[in-house]
Amino acid sequence: MKAPLGKIRFSLALLFILLAANFVMAQSVLHPSVPSGDRMVPNGDGTATATAAPTGQSVTTGNGINYNGGPVLKGSPVPIYIIWYGNWSGTGSNTAATQTLLQGFLSSTSLGGSNYEAINTLYGDTTGNVSGHLNFVQAVSDTGSQGTRLRNSSITAAISAQLTAGHLPTDPNGIYIFATSSNVKESGFCTQFCGFHTHQTINGADIKWAFIGNTDQCPSGCEIQATGPNSPATGVGGADGMANVMTHETEEAITDPDLNAWFDSSGNEDADKCNFKFGPTQIAPNGSKFNQTFGGHNWMIQLEWENSRGGGCDQVLGGAFFTS
Ligand SMILES: [Zn+2]
Prior knowledge:
Helices cover about 20% and strands about 20% of the residues. The protein is of the alpha/beta class.
């Protein structure tokens, strides 16, 4: 998920230079930066991916986003695991209240069962469709095994430690969210991106994970508003900002888990195509804007690209398309 501001886009040029000089893994981490040629991984079995559509809409194309042959996550629901990294017993939005709110947000009775998440059912692979359901299963804490200045390799090490110790299951069909408190620095966070997802072999399995930092580290770069509908106080918008990034990265991790399934000719995945677009909004009791209500809360979360009707960004499956 790229940051919305122009000044941050300027730094993308620097990012490309850094990536070119960096190790190979970094290229696949920042999915919008992966050259499309790297992502065109053939099935290898001679199957014609463009025409194989045994389950109907699963590989429907022609809606502004392309199917590139790889698998999607088809769990019903897709299990979500969270590693809360850093100091979540702190101040502002670095609190247990944020953890509780976001774990509830990712449950099957909230985002995971919403008409918004149902937009994802229009994506599939040659063996079936995305279910449109996800559910928070388990969280663990890591108060700082890798310090407060992270690189992607530190995140891999921290996730690997949880899996090899058996604190979290090793589940190739789930998504692992690595959520950092606002004092934790991650190379590129807040300057080039607000979150990203990738996959790696960890503990012998193809693990899909996403980095999602507390956006209160850079409200102007990664939050649509400094005070969100669930803010505990004015200007403490981190929980709502993270909820927005969580929708983005989980949508993409489900429809493009191995970075070889759904993205357009520019390398943009489904959520990238609606990045920081929200559609019509309403005003919450605290004066903030929101555009969705489910699970007993109001939320301000971006639109998702619908893979039907020619393609467009909408708030619910089959809803109106919006351009901003
Ligand atoms: Zn993205």
